[in-house]
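Much of our argument rests on the idea that a fold can be written as discrete symbols. The record that follows shows the chain in one-letter code together with its fold in token form.
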Amino acid sequence: MSELDPNYPVMEIAICLVDYAPLPSGHERALVGDIVAVRKPSVGIGVKEAKLYLWLRVEGVEDGEFPKLVNYIMDSTSDVIYDKRRYCISLEKLKENYPDFDIDLALDQDTIYQPFLLLDDDYTFILENDVQPFQVNGLIYDKITGDYL
């Protein structure tokens, strides 16, 4: 795809809602807000996923850039992984942009809270005709550069 004709597909991303303890090796694991999965739009998620990850349907990233959103942070000289994920979306930033978003409810592991992709009783996404994907420009934080994409 050329720079003059970019392709901005709609995709789904999963944001971690729990901090996982580091491994005994010292490698960090996913933290709250880390982008842990990227996929083409799907029909739903499982119960466990619904409690541990916040799913967003997004656009605003070029097609070839989506796979990079689940990259690790590594030391280029030793291949040591410093952080589980390089890119994240802060829950506070989501709240800033979407005031109805409830951070406490999202972090409650006893509650299934998917305000951006509603679920039915079978954990299938309920997509209404007027639901628009998130424009993620300015929401995705790069931990290496310290900039928002």
In short: The chain has one domain: 11-148. Helices lie at 47-52, 91-97, 103-107.
